[in-house]
Amino acid sequence: MFTKRKFPLTRLRRLRSKPFIRDMVRENILTGDDLIQPLFIKEDLKGTEVIPQMPGISRFGLDSIENEIEELANLGIKSVALFPVINPDKKDEFGTEAINQNNLICNAIEKIKNLVPEIIIISDVALDPYTSHGHDGILVDGYVDNDKTLDQLVKQSLALAESGADIIAPSDMMDGRIKLIRNALEEKDFKNIILLSYAAKYNSKFYGPFRSAVGSSSNLGKSTKAEYQMDVANSSEALHEVALDISEGADIVMVKPGMPYLDIISKVKETFNVPTFAYQVSGEYSMLKSAIENKWLEPEVMSESLLCFKRAGADAVLTYAAKEIIMELNK
């Protein structure tokens, strides 16, 4: 005799049965508000210049950055992060060009703000694009001197603020820099400048294409940044770093790299519940793009990777794929 089979009352597949149902119960979504486009600006460049190590990404000259900014803004990108590629003859051991009020990045900020005032400009604070040795700080007897570097970082931050940057983003990993920069901004009446701290920046091997893009890899050579960037094996230390930066005046904290450090993003968000950004760095981007171009992976893998950031707790993501992703979202 046939016995009616008993099934559990809960069938989770019911909520996956139709596209509209899946959309209704989706826990995380990706929108243009989540995307920040990093841009490389090269001194004395006319037009654009392809970056071989980063498929689909180019350096922009001051003459071509305007069209790119207008296009991004029209697509719905609300924020960009700027990184300079300066002439090699302007680099020195102290990163002096970083504090020049008339340097490449300061001129770019003013140009962009005159063109699209509403776009949010994030300006990196670190000396590595400006030093002849490729390090983020000033070397003393071969060692990056924390306190001597701080003076330079404060001056660099003030120059960027004077030029119109909305968000100052120290990525150098020097101890105490957030407090000194915050105090300097307050004293100069830049009270509304946001501090986005690269609070948990690891000594990762995923940065290779970026260093080539800004021209610091050749200067750095075989030298390492392990003396100031975080050990890739550490987790609790990241929470210590974030706690310190929040106490010193950071408005937003960031974890870098991204996908290999989703556990850190999650811990930071759950522990501190402050605005938390992530950086899908050049190595992550280039691996995915190369796999897509070779048809080893489907194009949708890029948006899937960004949803992983959202699921982990990131409020926004710096990604070189921002432009292509928002074009997909707009369809």
What topology does this entry show?
Blueprint: H1 19-25, E1 35-42, E2 48-50, E3 58-60, H2 65-75, E4 79-85, H3 104-115, E5 120-125, E6 138-140, E7 143-145, H4 146-163, E8 167-170, H5 177-187, E9 194-201, H6 208-214, H7 217-220, H8 236-248, E10 252-256, H9 262-272, E11 276-280, H10 282-293, H11 301-312, E12 316-319, H12 322-329
Parallel strand pairs: 1-3, 1-4, 1-12, 4-5, 5-8, 8-9, 9-10, 10-11, 11-12
Antiparallel strand pairs: 2-3, 6-7
Helix pairs in contact: 2-3, 3-4, 4-5, 8-9, 9-11
H-E string? HEEEHEHEEEHEHEHHHEHEHHEH
The geometry reads as: globular
Strand content: 15-25%
Instruction: Count every helix, treating DSSP H or I runs of 4 or more residues as helices.
Output: 12
CATH class: Alpha Beta
> Percent range for helical residues?
25-40%
Widest sheet: strand ordering: 1-4-5-8-9-10-11-12
Main β-sheet description: 8 strands, parallel, barrel
Which structural category do the helix and sheet elements fall into?
alpha/beta
Number of strands: 12
Compute the CA-based radius of gyration. Answer: 21 Å
Give the uncertain stretches in residue-range form.
none
- Round the mean pLDDT to the nearest integer and report it: 95
CATH architecture: Alpha-Beta Barrel
What name is given to the CATH topology? Answer: TIM Barrel
